[in-house]
Amino acid sequence: MQTSWIPFIPQSASTVSGRVDALYFYLCGVTVFFTLLISGVLIFFVVKYRRRSPFEIPRPIAGSHKLETIWSVIPFLIAMSMFAWGAQIYFQNSRPPKNAAEIYVVGKQWMWKIQHSTGQREINELHVPVGRKIKLIMTSEDTIHDFYIPAFRIKEDVIPGRYTTQWFEATQPGTYHLFCAEYCGMNHSGMIGSVIVMQPTEFDNWLSGNSSQQSPAVAGQQLFQSLGCVSCHGANGEGGRGPALAGLFGRQVFLTNGQTLIADEGYIRESIENPQAKLVSGFGPIMPTFQGQVSPEQLIEIMAFIKSLQITNPQQTTAPNPKAQTPAAPSATPAPNKQ
Ligand code: CUA
Question: Which CATH number is 216-308 given?
């Protein structure tokens, strides 16, 4: 593991880490400046205005609106600059770019299980290419964990029953620390690993080196068959007794209660585990719950399959989702859109 030239600061190895550091140094600089200024002035006044004789009576102070305005407005402006700068970095970090490659992360006591879109799996190791945008889609099998890569300055909770995301673009090949940053039981401190950043060609070789593994989308397609989803949603997600799934991901969905939402990972998971919660307009509550019957990893596979289902007919009102992966899964035949 490499270290940085400044003590206690981890190496900077992603496109955002320099920006996070700049904000951090600004906060430290402001803090140090005012600490020195206030303690210096304090000591100076203590000496200057010390009591020189037991009978001395100090001169009364009338107060000054001008002075009070200045010492209110300046700190306000400094605080707002911190807020605006921090918010800008926060928004950049919390919105994964549309063209980012997706990698799935499942946390469990006490390991990180990682799966690439080609099917390649790894435990406590994350191989990524340098200079490519990577989006992590994360969930937990048991308790709350937190996926933390100090060198990239990214950190996000990994929560059971929910999907959280974070993204990064590594800028330097190397091996970096991966930590769990949320106390998760006895071996929390051992829930660590390595992020291995490789040259893109090297990474592509590594990724294709184990091609015998099924991609999540293909595994998801098999689950789609074996769990019987096909009988209502169609083999290619064209719909039937259940809503059409082709092109669903990222699209607007109209519900029976009049609400609309965008189909994301959280919505798809909820619709599998608790189908009655958000019924699609025009469909009855006929789907059984799959709560407890599919593991978090199987859910990810089914989701990858649903994402891979594209509408091939351009006449369709909704455009295919550009984010969806297109591995070796079949594309759907055009289906009447019931929603
Ligand atoms: Cu997982 Cu701490």
Answer: 1.10.760.10
